[in-house]
């Protein structure tokens, strides 16, 4: 009887642990999806530079044209301070979001559309695929570490 009770308790504890991990993962996925929505909304309302700086972790890295890596929040802010980004508009939406079992890291993959005007006022559009890696910060917020 004692062995049966011990086995039952062990199974119960295991199921509780699995449930908690799934709960952390599912919570993280929802929070990351919300962070992506807020990120895009901020880019539309306050500008691309502000949004990319605000949502960047201090040690974030972005990869841009010609495989250039821009490292750190200050470097990202400087990169996005170029005149081109002051009149550009970007929209994106994740097609897929996932997170670690512990709920402290996650990523999104989706499509984006950049629109900008050339020197003659003609709108140019470019489309692509993005991949963003998100990390939960000490204060509980989500910031991207790779974009």
Notable characteristics:
147 residues, Nuclear Transport Factor 2, Chain: A, 6 strands, 38% strand, globular
Please report which band the strand proportion falls in: under 5%, 5-15%, 15-25%, 25-35%, 35-45% or over 45%: 35-45%
Structural class: alpha+beta
Instruction: Write down the CATH topology.
Output: Nuclear Transport Factor 2, Chain: A
Helix content: 40-55%
Enumerate the spans where pLDDT stays under 50 for 5 or more consecutive residues: 12-16
Largest sheet: 6 strands, mixed
C-alpha termini separation? 56 Å
Count every helix, treating DSSP H or I runs of 4 or more residues as helices. 4
**Molecular shape:** globular
- Strand order of the biggest β-sheet: 2-1-6-5-4-3
Overall number of strands: 6
CATH class: Alpha Beta
What's the helix-strand series?
HHEEHHEEEE
Mean pLDDT: 89
> What is the count of distinct domains?
1
Your description of this structure?
With 147 residues, the protein is α+β, with helices and mostly antiparallel strands. It has a single domain (2-146), classed as Nuclear Transport Factor 2, Chain: A (Roll), CATH 3.10.450.50. It contains four helices and six strands, in the order ααββααββββ. It has helices at residues 2-46, 48-54, 73-79, 83-87, and strands at 56-64, 68-71, 89-99, 105-117, 123-136, 142-146. A six-stranded mixed β-sheet has the order 2-1-6-5-4-3. Strand 1 and strand 2 (68-71) form a beta hairpin. The longest helix is centred in the first third of the chain and has 45 residues, at 2-46. The chain starts with a helix and ends with a strand. 18% of the residues are buried. Mean pLDDT is 89; it is low at 12-16.
């Amino acid at each position: 009887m004692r062995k049966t009770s011990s086995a039952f308790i062990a199974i119960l504890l295991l199921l509780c642990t699995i449930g908690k991990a799934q709960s952390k993962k599912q919570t993280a996925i929802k929070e990351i999806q919300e962070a992506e929505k807020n990120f895009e909304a901020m880019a539309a309302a306050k500008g691309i530079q502000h949004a990319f700086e605000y949502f960047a972790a201090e040690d974030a890295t972005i990869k841009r044209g010609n495989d250039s890596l821009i490292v750190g929040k200050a470097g990202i802010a400087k990169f996005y301070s170029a005149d081109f980004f002051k009149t550009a508009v970007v929209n994106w939406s994740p097609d897929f979001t996932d997170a670690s079992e512990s709920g402290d890291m996650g990523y999104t993959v989706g499509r984006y559309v950049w629109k900008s005007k050339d020197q003659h006022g003609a709108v140019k559009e470019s489309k692509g695929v993005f991949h963003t890696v998100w990390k939960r910060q000490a204060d509980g917020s989500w910031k991207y570490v790779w974009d």
